[in-house]
Design a protein that fits this description.
Rossmann fold, alpha/beta, single chain, about 500 residues, 19 helices, 18 strands, about 40% helix, 2 domains, nine-stranded mixed beta sheet, binds adenosine-5'-diphosphate
Length: about 500
């Protein structure tokens, strides 16, 4: 098929409108990369209250109450607004499904103050999934492919294959579902299933039920025509063990022939040290010395003394169990004995913040912390650090290690998922880009940091690592082509 495809891309977070993690980055860059390949792709997401009408020039596409979505015994109404995201080459249209009751809030999934998930997340995302389908007909735009991302969009394939399957408008649409993180499943009680209006017959272990609950992610694993995840290694991991598959490994492995690992790319329009407006001094391979000025600025920003030859390790992360900071906490005192400095930008669990703060008090000149979400600081940490730490328990793809390599900041990572697929260990010869450890164990982490510090003391060898990372090509084009091939393959079937 050589005609341009029509693709609808669904996500609950899209940069620059709403972001809690890497999903937002991917949901912005991948559609742009697909559009650059000549296809018509549009994005749809919820319109959260904080998405400013004025800043993003939202305009009405479908007026108030014109979208009607059955939900349980009632009918909820919605409207659609629109805006664009654009890089230098292409503009992608973004539709926002608006309903003040469900999305007129300050958080995406949680109350930002209590940090508790909204109790009606089931209704919010049932409304979104079914609302998307209703909107398409109202728009009169018939995509060839609906590309869903994570559990919040997981009911769309189920609706298309059941409730809407006899409607000619939807009959030929193929669905792709991308797993960005298998651990977030959207599992709700049976009552929620009844609100969805899906046929009763599919609430069973071979269908949308998992462990007695209505599971949005499993609904997608069951009904999507094709399933992808964001690295080859993670695609294998989620099939093999309960730990990685978060209880759905048996089910996902049944669909192995439809499961593809496609590595995320990075958006060099945003993450490029030569163009980056957020950092103190721009640099590239030919001006590596300028990186030092960013190191100085970073130290200043986090109230640390600037020490030119002391290795500075950075970390930027959601503070959740997955990211492995329990390992860091176990050996942080020992890390300090190596004579390094450590800076961390984290958002998430308060209990993890507190533990870091108590250790920091003992090493005020070596540890700098900032808790909260701060995009500018994230860029400065990538630019100013010497090393970047990602000790994840599991990591579907991980973006920060790729950003780091682009900024000449050498990653120290656990060999899992996308971290394993993207980082080459220093010991592998002249092609090394970082340091990896296998076992989820704080002593192994410490050993990897020790190895890194030793190589740091050999400036020529270190520069080689930096250069190797900076020369890697993680651009989206390659991955976007793989998605398009997959779409085409599905449409040929
Ligand atoms: P995940 O999606 O699991 O959070 P990724 O490495 O794929 O992990 O992507 C994380 C993205 O979120 C990166 O763009 C990173 O810079 C950003 N990020 C994470 N925590 C913060 C924070 N506290 N402040 C700013 N950016 C953050």
């Amino acid at each position: 098929m050589s005609r341009p495809l029509n693709i609808l891309f669904l996500s609950s977070e899209v940069e620059p409108f709403a972001k809690t993690g890497g999903l937002a980055d991917v949901s912005s860059s991948l559609p742009q990369a697909i559009k650059e390949l000549g296809h018509e792709i549009r994005i749809m997401m919820p319109r959260y209250r904080f998405i400013s009408e004025r800043k993003f020039k939202l305009h009405d596409i479908i007026r108030l109450k014109e979208i009607q979505v059955p939900l349980g015994k009632s009918v909820e109404v919605g409207n659609v607004k629109s805006s664009f995201i654009s890089n230098l080459k292409e503009k992608v249209q973004v539709y926002f499904l608006d309903n003040a009751k469900f999305f007129g809030r300050e958080g995406i999934y949680q109350n930002p103050v209590s940090k508790k998930d909204y109790k009606d997340n089931d209704e919010r995302f049932i409304f979104f999934c079914r609302g998307v389908i209703e909107t398409l007909k109202r728009l009169g735009w018939q995509p060839d492919i609906i590309h869903c991302n994570d559990w919040q969009t997981g009911l769309v394939p189920a609706y298309i294959k059941t409730l809407y399957s006899s409607d000619g408008f939807y009959k030929n649409i193929k669905t792709v579902f991308t797993i960005h993180n298998m651990a977030y499943q959207g599992a709700f009680p049976h009552d929620s299933f009844e609100k969805s209006g899906l046929p009763k017959s599919i609430f069973k272990p071979e269908g949308v039920e998992a462990y007695g609950k209505f599971n949005f992610l499993k609904s997608a694993l069951c009904y999507a025509d094709s399933i992808t995840t964001v690295s080859k290694r993670y695609a294998e991991e989620i099939c093999t063990s309960d730990e990685y598959g978060a209880g759905l490994n048996g089910f996902v492995s049944k669909r192995k022939k439809d499961l593809h690992g496609i590595l995320n790319g990075i958006d060099y329009g945003i993450w490029d040290p030569l163009m980056d407006e957020f950092i103190y001094r721009k640099f590239d391979l030919k001006s590596l010395d300028a990186k030092l000025d960013n190191k100085r600025a970073l130290a200043g920003r986090l109230a640390l003394p600037f020490k030119e030859t002391t290795p500075l390790i950075g970390a930027i992360s959601r503070l959740v169990d997955q990211k492995g900071f329990d390992l860091v906490l176990e050996v942080l005192d020992d890390m300090m004995k190596l004579g390094i400095q450590f800076v961390m930008l984290g958002s998430g669990e308060k209990s993890i913040e507190k533990k870091f703060e108590s250790i920091q008090k003992k090493h005020p000149n070596q540890i700098g912390l900032f808790f909260g979400f701060d995009n500018d600081l994230a860029h400065l940490i990538e630019a100013g650090s010497d090393m970047f730490l990602m000790p994840s328990k599991y990591e579907p793809c991980g973006l920060n290690q790729m950003y780091s390599m682009r900024y000449g900041t050498v990653p120290v990572v656990r060999a899992t998922g996308g971290l394993d697929d993207t980082v080459e260990d220093h010991s592998s010869g002249g092609k090394g880009t970082g340091f990896k450890f296998e076992k989820y164990d704080s002593k192994e982490l410490l050993k990897a940091i020790q190895r890194a510090v030793k190589v740091y003391q050999q400036p020529e060898e270190w520069k080689k690592l930096m250069r190797n990372g900076m020369m890697k090509d993680f651009s989206w084009e390659f991955s976007a082509k793989q998605y398009v091939n997959l779409y085409k393959e599905l449409l040929r079937q």
